[in-house]
Specification:
The structure is a homodimer of 335-residue chains. Chain A is 24% helix and 18% strand. The first copy, chain A, contains eight helices and ten strands. The radius of gyration of chain A is 20 Å and the shape is globular. Chains A, B: This is Esterase.
Chain lengths: 335, 335
């Protein structure tokens, strides 16, 4: 099989089968801070006063035998959890296991304040107890199926699907089950997930940070904080790319940005792609090593925003793994 | 090694090492219902109106090669998630991987409304938007470190530890990071986790339901709904046992209830143990097959409420696995 930087594989790979042998697996948390509250409980059955730990980040890892040098850290997007990378809604292999079977250790996180990473509910109880006004409630958001349909570009509007969509729309219920409320706007600034990713990258002694959508910007923010431990950044359809003036800390880190299909048909998406092009151009002009991979430009059509769950998800994974194999490296200090 | 039903192993087992080979792994959701809301978002950036799916239950599974007949479904307790069963706070192997290495497929859930299983935040947004009074906020609870210390029986009161405690108190921060708010009181009745466990047991064609603390009663409630697929029930320090008058649906299912040490020193715990003894006696009198395993009665001392994370967690696991090997079976209909 012959690859150039912009040649697509001739066809989608077969799903690997057979036993999966791990050298290790486990889970742990990174970060967090202790806060004291008087409103932990609404009933006298449990103590309302006490200390809780918040802003930590859940990490689950699996390490294959003869693992490649750099593990891949998988960072989910808005209204989702680490489940994003596991089994697809229609029951196929996700990127987590595929990467593992291709020899990469995987570290799957739940963003701080999401999934298995705790939220802080004491402000809600304070309002219920009449100790604080409703305006002090946290800013919460849940994406409805109808809005997510268009944001994820399954089709122009719910429930109309693009004829060529790669998303398994018949299994959409499996995606809706994965979605969780988003507490991001109620978290401290800067977002604790970013600092926790830096601690994780340093702990691992080098990792590829692979982010998606809302989290697309996080690895860049992490690098701006500290480039240590960041062997490469892959940003799948980031909600936001760094501004061209902010590329300096990134010039020592290989960067790949990936976009799917039907971008130009959405006023939400077209400007994001344009801004990411400008970012990659500025990064390369500053001596960095960036690539913007547009799947339709490679002849791969119909990919949605949830390309890690699309029917051709392993084909897209191969393109990313090929790029990682050629680019991941010990980070140089940004110039 | 010689075992009788009440003989403790001569010593704690060594932690298994070496490669871990799986025939399959993955994750999926069970259950859930669609609800429509006008308060999904607080900002015009995202649509406030739409449909979200709530009350579903996250399940992650791993299947070893040559798996034994009945998988074990691991059901966490209050203020925790499936992380309970993974790596311990001090970095040792948890029951999930140990059971796997002993030949059992494992299914780890996040209770509905906890961890990767969505909560419904629309009532909170409704109050923040002034569309509903604070009294309509959900009933939420977070266990503080100080209260949890005594409830989990690490010692008489925070931060005083029992001299013989098996909990790795020096790594307590790792447990505090695991704790999440509990939305149980805001969920519909009956608790959707119970119905979802029944669907899971039926889907698996037989499983051991292993529950803990708050969830201790769930497998019994699941069996009262439908015994199908329940090969055995192991309840680790249930917050509540079934009432002696409620044993009839359970007479066809082997039942093990496990309690640790220092029970009599806590007014919260002593009555629970007593009530569980009465339940097991009633179950056996009705023709069922119940056992109450008190670890101190077996000469094993210092176990906390979090015995799956205690320093001798694998010793306790062996006792449970030995019981499962001797008792799990296709369920008979309760008489």
């Amino acid at each position: 099989m012959f690859h150039t930087a912009h040649a697509a594989p001739a066809q989608a790979p077969k799903t690997p089968t057979g036993p999966l042998t791990l050298s290790a697996q486990g889970s742990f948390f990174i970060g967090g801070r202790d806060v004291t509250s008087d409103t932990l409980s609404l009933t006298p059955k449990y103590d309302a006063h006490g200390t809780v730990t918040v802003d930590q980040m859940y990490v689950r890892y699996q390490i294959p035998q003869r693992a490649k040098r750099y593990p891949i850290t998988l960072i989910h997007g808005c209204c989702l959890t680490g489940m994003t990378w596991e089994t697809t809604p229609d029951g196929r292999m996700g990127w987590e296991e595929y990467f593992l079977r291709k020899g990469y250790a995987t570290y799957v996180i739940d963003q701080s304040g999401r999934g298995r990473s705790a939220t802080d509910i004491s402000a809600i109880n304070a309002v219920k107890l009449g100790k604080a006004p409703p305006s002090t409630l946290p800013d919460l958001f849940a994406a409805g199926h109808e809005a997510a349909w268009a944001i994820f570009r399954f089709g122009p509007r719910y429930p109309e699907a693009f004829k060529d969509t790669q998303f398994p729309v018949q299994a959409q219920a499996g995606l809706w089950q994965q979605m969780v409320p988003d507490w991001l706007a109620s978290l401290p600034t800067p977002n604790p997930t970013v600092a926790n990713l830096s601690k994780l990258a340093i702990k691992l002694g080098g990792t590829v940070l692979l982010s998606h959508s809302q989290s697309g910007i996080y690895p860049f923010q992490t690098a701006a904080m500290n480039t240590q431990g960041i062997a490469a950044i892959v940003s799948v359809e980031p909600g936001e790319c760094p501004k061209p003036g902010d590329v300096q800390p990134l010039t020592g880190i290989p960067v790949l940005v990936v976009f799917g299909d039907h971008i130009e048909e959405f006023p939400r998406w077209a400007p994001r792609l344009k801004a990411c092009h400008a970012f990659i151009d500025a990064l390369n002009a500053a001596g960095g090593k960036g690539q913007l991979m547009s799947l339709p430009a490679l002849g791969i059509h119909g990919n949605s925003h949830m390309m890690m769950q699309d029917k051709n998800n392993l084909q897209v994974a191969d393109l990313i793994l090929d790029w990682i194999a050629r680019n991941a490296r010990a980070p140089r200090r940004g110039r």
